[in-house]
Specification:
By secondary structure, the protein is α/β, with parallel strands linked by helices. It has three domains: 116 residues, Periplasmic binding protein-like II (D-Maltodextrin-Binding Protein, domain 2, 3-Layer(aba) Sandwich); 81 residues, D-Maltodextrin-Binding Protein, domain 2; 72 residues, Double Stranded RNA Binding Domain (2-Layer Sandwich), CATH 3.30.160. 34% of the residues lie in helices and 23% in strands. It is built from ten helices and 13 strands. The strands form three sheets. Strands 2-1-3-10-4 form a five-stranded mixed sheet, sandwiched between helices. The chain has a five-stranded mixed sheet with strand order 7-6-8-5-9, with helices on both faces. Strands 11-12-13 form a three-stranded antiparallel sheet, with helices on both faces. Strand 6, helix 5 and strand 7 form a beta-alpha-beta unit.
């Protein structure tokens, strides 16, 4: 049997697709795997912050179109890029074991965020990272940074920025973890919802592919991702609002921390909830409701102009 994996063309996306291909071949040695490279809207628009061009679906729509047209059999995504809704007929069928979800600090001259002088220029296009940086270091100058991992590191090394913030998972997958001078504790900078997970999407009527791909599903990761994505969905969150959600399972309990802020980091709301992992979705929804009732609803209405 042959399966066709749809993937973006970036080095990180190709690493992720190849990783999934290798894992599948471990379980099914006779399986033939083809990578189909697809350019998404998010890959084409590199000079505008994501928040201004439409949010999460930017990196998946063209790949989902290829799935619906039967040009590919499955898609491998960074789960943090995947919207919480799917076109009819498509869905997530496996979530891989989570890579380290923390954010990393990279700099040529400085070893940590505390070493940065006042007014230092930090690069990130993530509203979530921007506001959490502003809360801890309001004196920093934060500038947008787009492009793939290599491009962002090159801009740092050229001196365009004093420091940049990247997902540690991406650095590790590309063998670049030595570039990180500091990895932020999840209390200091709460990760993006589903950061570090790979999500595998298929057609829901393709029983054969689903059966093959299901061997890659990691149950703890699925529960954690379910809680985080339920939280995101209940807040109608996208890239236009600074929002974070991070879960852990400790001593048999799922602990979910949520964060939402205005665009300046002046009004922000943070809370956590814990309960049974099997209630992951309900916990995510309940935490979102708590934040909305504590004032986050007004922030969302302002951001979305409601």
């Amino acid at each position: 049997m042959k399966v066709r994996i749809g993937t973006r063309k970036s080095k990180l996306a190709l690493w992720q697709a190849n990783f999934v291909a290798q894992q599948l071949k471990k379980h099914f040695p006779d399986l033939e795997v083809e990578l189909v490279k697809i350019t998404t809207k998010g890959d084409k628009i590199l000079d505008v912050p994501l928040a201004k061009v439409g949010g999460k679906g930017l990196f998946v729509k063209e790949i989902e179109d290829a799935l619906l047209r039967n040009k590919i059999d499955l898609a491998v995504h960074s789960l943090k890029d995947v919207p919480t809704y799917f076109p009819p007929g498509l869905g997530l069928v496996a979530i891989t074991k989570r890579e380290d979800p923390r954010d990393a600090f990279l700099s040529v001259k400085y070893n940590s965020i505390d070493e940065l002088p006042k007014g230092a220029v930090v690069g990130t296009s993530s509203l979530r990272r921007k506001v959490q940086l502003k809360i801890h270091r309001p004196d920093l100058t934060i500038k947008d940074l787009r492009g793939n991992v290599d491009t962002r590191i090159r801009k740092l090394e050229e001196g365009q920025y004093d420091a940049i913030i990247l997902a540690y998972a991406g650095l590790k997958r590309l063998g670049l973890e030595n570039k990180a001078k500091q990895v932020f504790d999840t209390d200091f900078m709460i990760p993006a919802v589903a950061q570090g997970f790979l999500g595998i999407e298929t057609r829901l009527d393709d029983a054969e592919t689903i059966k093959i791909v299901s061997v890659l599903n990691d149950e703890e990761s699925r529960l954690r991702a379910t809680a985080e994505r339920a939280f995101l969905k209940a807040l109608e969150g996208g890239c236009q609002v600074p929002l974070a959600g991070y879960s852990e399972i400790k001593d048999g309990k799922l602990i979910l921390t949520g964060f939402i802020s205005d665009l300046e980091g002046k009004r922000y709301f943070k809370d956590f909830i814990e309960g049974s992992p099997v209630e992951a979705e309900d916990l995510g929804i309940e935490l979102a409701e708590r934040l909305l009732q504590s004032g986050a609803r007004e922030v969302l209405d302002e951001v979305y102009g409601r």
